[in-house]
Amino acid sequence: MGSNDVQAIVLFMETTSIKQSVSNGASQFMPAYEDMIKAGMHFGRKKTIFHPNMKPYVYTLKENIYILDLIKTTDTLIKAVNFIKQAVTDGKMILFVGLTKQSSEVVKNVAESFNMPYVINRWLGGTLTNFKTIAGRVKYLEELEKKQAEGDFEKFTKKEKILKEREIANLKMKFGGIRKLNRVPDVIFVTSLKEGQLPVREAKIAGVKIVCIVNTDSDPKQVDIPIVANDNSKKSVELILEAIKNGVQATN
Prior knowledge:
Layout: H1 3-14, H2 18-25, H3 33-38, E1 43-46, E2 58-62, E3 65-68, H4 70-89, E4 94-98, H5 104-113, E5 118-120, H6 131-149, H7 158-175, E6 187-190, H8 197-206, E7 209-214, E8 225-228, H9 234-249
Parallel strand pairs: 4-5, 4-6, 6-7, 7-8
Antiparallel strand pairs: 1-3, 2-3
Helix pairs in contact: 2-4, 4-9, 5-9, 6-7
């Protein structure tokens, strides 16, 4: 949709009570209504890929694209923030997962601000269901880094040293974000249900609570705490994670 389409949708929404309702329902850590619109947080998917369980969260259908009800988006986001805030207060471990290019940077930043583990770009199968093996690879990475720091690599030939350094770089790319994952997490936060089917499936098998951004093409009943919003917009994902960060830090 172009800027004219966005303006038309904004005008369409503002002719109803939705703007006032969103403002009244928002807490101090929620994004402003105007920012939600600018970020495209209300944009769902095309009519042809709609999941029927998302019907309660839809505001209208515009040019064959579903428009999410921002009142429902706000309600689900507040619920998610409160859930994560309580988890942090209780000392629980949260694994943040951002497998899309529009979410990886912000996921890493928020996870690090909470001193929590994260996975970006690619999910390694078995991270939750075969945790012992994954933990072993993290330990191996740390052993290699220790040897490198102690100068143990100096005994190798130039070629062997380069291979070891490449191995460390490769392991850091795969396992660097989960160094703090010393056990199966209590909660997993995923930035897109569509792109995060693998971690969501493993979390369900492992009995891990799931907080996830869900768009109109996915089933919100797959997760424990759905956040109904556009998962394909970088700004939308950023606003959601900013709300979570601000909400948690407001009382912790």
